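Q: I'm building a small set of examples for a reading group on sequence design. Run inverse folding on the following structure and report the sequence directly after it, with nothing in between.
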């Protein structure tokens, strides 16, 4: 409610809840119109200015923050579990760097896999997946061990980071500025179609990852121990990596690089409730959503009406808290 009231158009909390209730009734009464003409035409036809501000601008941003935070926190927890490394995350494994290169290639060179208005999104998605497949391909030659996957991920992060820098060096000033803004990460591209796409992917990926929570717990004791208990370690590692990457790629192609959520949310969860992945995975997702929404709240209010990039704010908020939690740690949690 509080987050929905923030913005250049003043709306009180009471008005927000009233608008949400009236809007819900109006939507249910006119579902046939929405199916035929779309949500935007429906909003122009049936909503007042206040209702458009809440339903078309602020609510999609909030929902995008929630589901993106859940996805990044969940993916980060899975990657740290399968690689048994506290520094593993979508960012440190190069997935975000691949998405950044794909977006920069579209913005600065106009080249991409998909044309039209989906050029940037399509490039970011494809190159994020490409990084994952390269990591898996390199790892398969030496065996899909945590060490080889982490080293391959770090190599991809530096490689795609270097290629992005070269593109920016030769790019036009305005295009470079746009590419940098995209890579910082924000929720400004929020809309109901975007929320629907990410929510659909999250609904497919999250149950698959949760089903592997017992396998991840056993793998935490070592690959040999897991194999002796009947876990196909290599297959589990590959499947969870692919599913996590698909989830992250879908999120970052719409939000840009928001790298801190997938690192700090699982750590905070393990410090609070221990290392059982049956609970760590869902709680990391929920905590990721709380961190991202809180960071967006700060980003929108700290120097309003200017909205800071939420990716930078998450790092500013999370880094000191992360250090504080580490300093207060009384026991091993990994």
């Amino acid at each position: 409610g509080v987050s929905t009231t923030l913005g250049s158009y003043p709306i009180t909390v009471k008005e927000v809840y009233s608008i949400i209730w009236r809007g819900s009734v109006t939507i249910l009464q006119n579902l046939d119109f929405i199916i035929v003409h779309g949500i935007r035409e429906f909003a122009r036809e049936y909503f007042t200015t206040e209702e458009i501000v809440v339903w078309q601008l602020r609510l999609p941003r909030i929902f995008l923050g929630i589901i993106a935070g859940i996805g990044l926190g969940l993916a980060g927890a899975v990657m740290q579990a399968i690689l048994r490394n506290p520094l593993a995350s979508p960012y440190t494994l190069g997935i975000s760097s691949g998405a950044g290169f794909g977006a920069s290639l579209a913005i600065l060179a106009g080249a991409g896999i998909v044309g039209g208005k989906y050029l940037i999104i399509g490039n970011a998605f494809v190159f994020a997946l490409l990084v994952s497949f390269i990591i898996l391909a390199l790892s398969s030659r030496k065996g899909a061990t945590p060490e080889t996957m982490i080293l391959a991920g770090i190599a991809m992060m530096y490689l795609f980071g270097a290629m992005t820098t070269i593109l920016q060096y030769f790019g036009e000033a305005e295009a470079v500025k746009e590419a940098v803004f995209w890579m910082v990460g924000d929720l400004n591209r929020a809309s109901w179609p975007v929320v629907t796409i990410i929510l659909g992917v999250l609904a497919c990926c999250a149950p698959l990852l949760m089903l592997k929570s017992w396998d991840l717990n056993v793998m935490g004791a070592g690959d040999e121990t897991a194999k002796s208990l009947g876990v196909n370690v290599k297959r589990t590692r590959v499947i969870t990596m692919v599913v996590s990457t698909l989830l992250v790629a879908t999120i970052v192609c719409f939000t840009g690089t928001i790298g801190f959520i997938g690192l700090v949310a699982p750590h905070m969860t393990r410090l609070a409730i221990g290392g059982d992945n049956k609970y760590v995975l869902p709680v990391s997702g929920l905590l990721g959503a709380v961190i991202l929404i809180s960071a967006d709240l700060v980003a929108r209010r700290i120097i309003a009406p200017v909205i800071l990039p939420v990716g930078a704010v998450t790092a500013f908020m999370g880094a000191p808290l992360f250090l504080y939690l580490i300093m207060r740690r009384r026991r091993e949690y990994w």
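The chain has one domain: 63-328.
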